[in-house]
């Protein structure tokens, strides 16, 4: 039985290194958006290059995150976590030194692989290391400090872009890794899951990532409608079908199809797709709108959306408690509607926008909507499956959210007629941004309708989330595999 206590020096070192490692991946999933206009100008990149700068990372992260968790269970959680941190740092160095957009995109894809190794491993190390009496507090500290990192990230990213330059958004990860790795090797105990068995579903992971990559390529390049786009679209669909077939036939699939036999689990994941597609599109475009159209600095644009994250940090635990009392149906119905209203309020943001009058009201309404829905969404996902599958269910839900976000980033420019040079033209980008907010709001309303029609109150003895505090805006919190049979709160 793990026996580390949170008050011990070793416990503090474990929390330090896991928070530091997971924050690296968490920050890069949001901070890079702030740097996009400067990256485009410096590397002479068009809009498609900027889309790939975001999506190359998301493709490999979403496609491999389930496999990353399984590797840690089998070969050692500390070992895989350290490999992920080193991998992420090396890929970050390549991003920071990239001489052109093609190298940057390739390095971002490698970053996603590192993120898929370290992201699930950080929470798994917490759960496997601490004494059962301290585990809840340790997870709370881990998620709370990680949320603070998510809040600080856009501020730091904007400061770096305006100061030393966008390359330091990536290069900063190298010294962080140089601190994280020695501490992990010295102070974090190794752990494995003795129940892990069978072969790894590498084929399933490759097919899943390939389907995402090909569909993303087809959407990003759809305005040209070339033979390559058609081939990519057909190949993406074929890879997706092959993924389903492989998962049905394998003895140990990465994503067991029978988990979707739970109608509630399937329904909540459909709501997740709608909600996080809208979030992905919004956070990709909003910081660019503030810089290109409103003329704000990268620092001002990065910090403009900070209140949404702060609201989640302050109120997510209370939102989870409310969801437990009244059930998830109302929060999952009302939350997306509030988010949709926040995005429609962003239609007021144009040239010479005022933060207090135009941006802040929209961000506050959006943040309240996110607070309302994220914690109940995670709780409902866990409540929809057997306790032994809680970690798997959370991983699938997290991967679905990331996949929805990358598809939105790929599709919105096509849907709004945003040309390759749109981000260089304030008028063109402003027009497309307004259409995009309408699309995002519409998808959120669809998610609200799905929640109202399909979500029901879970059983009273279901699994409860351990991550009560949450600050990420790009994906719901990951929950680890239960240690023993943990029921209830």
Automatic annotation (TrEMBL):
<feature type="transmembrane region" description="Helical">
    <location>
        <begin position="226"/>
        <end position="246"/>
    </location>
</feature>
<dbReference type="GO" id="GO:0046677">
    <property type="term" value="P:response to antibiotic"/>
</dbReference>
<dbReference type="GO" id="GO:0022857">
    <property type="term" value="F:transmembrane transporter activity"/>
</dbReference>
<keyword id="KW-0813">Transport</keyword>
<feature type="transmembrane region" description="Helical">
    <location>
        <begin position="296"/>
        <end position="317"/>
    </location>
</feature>
<dbReference type="GO" id="GO:0005886">
    <property type="term" value="C:plasma membrane"/>
</dbReference>
<feature type="transmembrane region" description="Helical">
    <location>
        <begin position="138"/>
        <end position="160"/>
    </location>
</feature>
<keyword id="KW-1133">Transmembrane helix</keyword>
<feature type="transmembrane region" description="Helical">
    <location>
        <begin position="166"/>
        <end position="188"/>
    </location>
</feature>
<feature type="transmembrane region" description="Helical">
    <location>
        <begin position="267"/>
        <end position="290"/>
    </location>
</feature>
<feature type="transmembrane region" description="Helical">
    <location>
        <begin position="399"/>
        <end position="416"/>
    </location>
</feature>
<feature type="transmembrane region" description="Helical">
    <location>
        <begin position="200"/>
        <end position="220"/>
    </location>
</feature>
<feature type="domain" description="Major facilitator superfamily (MFS) profile">
    <location>
        <begin position="14"/>
        <end position="459"/>
    </location>
</feature>
<feature type="transmembrane region" description="Helical">
    <location>
        <begin position="329"/>
        <end position="347"/>
    </location>
</feature>
<keyword id="KW-0472">Membrane</keyword>
<feature type="transmembrane region" description="Helical">
    <location>
        <begin position="359"/>
        <end position="387"/>
    </location>
</feature>
<dbReference type="Pfam" id="PF07690">
    <property type="entry name" value="MFS_1"/>
</dbReference>
<dbReference type="InterPro" id="IPR020846">
    <property type="entry name" value="MFS_dom"/>
</dbReference>
<dbReference type="InterPro" id="IPR004638">
    <property type="entry name" value="EmrB-like"/>
</dbReference>
<feature type="transmembrane region" description="Helical">
    <location>
        <begin position="80"/>
        <end position="99"/>
    </location>
</feature>
<dbReference type="InterPro" id="IPR036259">
    <property type="entry name" value="MFS_trans_sf"/>
</dbReference>
<keyword id="KW-0046">Antibiotic resistance</keyword>
<dbReference type="InterPro" id="IPR011701">
    <property type="entry name" value="MFS"/>
</dbReference>
<keyword id="KW-1003">Cell membrane</keyword>
<feature type="transmembrane region" description="Helical">
    <location>
        <begin position="12"/>
        <end position="36"/>
    </location>
</feature>
<feature type="transmembrane region" description="Helical">
    <location>
        <begin position="105"/>
        <end position="126"/>
    </location>
</feature>
<feature type="transmembrane region" description="Helical">
    <location>
        <begin position="436"/>
        <end position="455"/>
    </location>
</feature>
<protein>
    <submittedName>
        <fullName>MFS transporter</fullName>
    </submittedName>
</protein>
<keyword id="KW-0812">Transmembrane</keyword>
<feature type="transmembrane region" description="Helical">
    <location>
        <begin position="56"/>
        <end position="73"/>
    </location>
</feature>
């Amino acid at each position: 039985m793990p026996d580390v206590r949170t008050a011990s020096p070793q416990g503090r070192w474990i929390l330090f290194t896991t928070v530091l490692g997971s924050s690296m991946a968490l920050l890069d999933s949001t901070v890079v958006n702030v740097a996009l206009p400067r990256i485009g100008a410096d590397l002479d990149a068009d809009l498609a290059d900027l889309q790939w700068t975001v999506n190359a990372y998301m493709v490999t992260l979403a496609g491999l995150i389930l496999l990353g968790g399984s590797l840690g269970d089998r070969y050692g959680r500390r070992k895989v976590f350290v490999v992920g941190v080193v991998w992420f740092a090396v890929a970050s160095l390549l991003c920071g030194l990239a001489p052109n957009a093609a190298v940057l995109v390739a390095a971002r894809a490698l970053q996603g692989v590192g993120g898929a190794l370290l992201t699930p491993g950080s929470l798994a190390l917490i759960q496997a290391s601490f004494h059962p009496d301290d585990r809840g507090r340790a997870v709370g500290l881990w998620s709370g400090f990680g949320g603070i990192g998510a809040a600080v990230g856009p501020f730091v990213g904007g400061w770096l872009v305006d100061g030393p330059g966008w390359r330091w958004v990536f290069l900063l990860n190298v010294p962080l890794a140089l601190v994280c790795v020695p501490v992990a090797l010295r102070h974090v105990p190794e752990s494995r899951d003795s129940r892990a068995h069978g072969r790894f579903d590498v084929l399933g992971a490759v097919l899943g990532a390939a389907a995402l990559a090909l569909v993303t390529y087809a959407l990003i390049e759809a305005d040209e409608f070339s033979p390559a786009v058609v081939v990519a679209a057909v190949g993406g669909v074929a890879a997706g079908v092959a993924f389903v077939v492989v998962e049905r036939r394998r003895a140990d699939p990465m994503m067991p199809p029978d988990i979707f036999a739970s109608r509630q689990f399937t329904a909540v994941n459909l709501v997740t797709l709608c909600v996080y597609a809208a979030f992905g599109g919004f956070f990709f475009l909003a910081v660019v709108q503030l810089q290109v159209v409103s003329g704000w600095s990268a620092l001002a644009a990065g910090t403009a959306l900070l209140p949404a994250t702060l609201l989640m940090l302050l109120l997510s635990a209370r939102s989870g408690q409310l969801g437990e009392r009244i059930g998830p149906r109302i929060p999952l119905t009302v939350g997306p509607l509030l988010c949709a209203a926040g995005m429609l309020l962003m239609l007021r943001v144009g040239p010479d926008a005022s933060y207090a009058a135009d941006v802040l009201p929209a961000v506050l309404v959006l943040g309240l909507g996110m607070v309302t829905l994220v914690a109940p969404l995670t709780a409902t996902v866990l409540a929809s499956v057997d306790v032994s599958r809680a970690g798997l269910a959370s991983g699938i839900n997290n991967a679905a959210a990331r996949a929805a976000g990358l598809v939105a980033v790929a599709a919105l420019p096509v849907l709004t007629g945003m040309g390759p040079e749109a981000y260089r033209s304030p008028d063109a980008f402003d027009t497309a941004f307004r259409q995009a907010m309408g699309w995002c709001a519409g998808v959120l309303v669809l998610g609200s309708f799905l929640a109202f029609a399909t979500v029901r109150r879970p059983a009273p003895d279901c699994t409860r989330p351990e991550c009560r505090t949450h600050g990420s805006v790009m994906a719901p919190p990951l929950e680890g595999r239960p240690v023993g049979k943990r029921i209830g709160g």
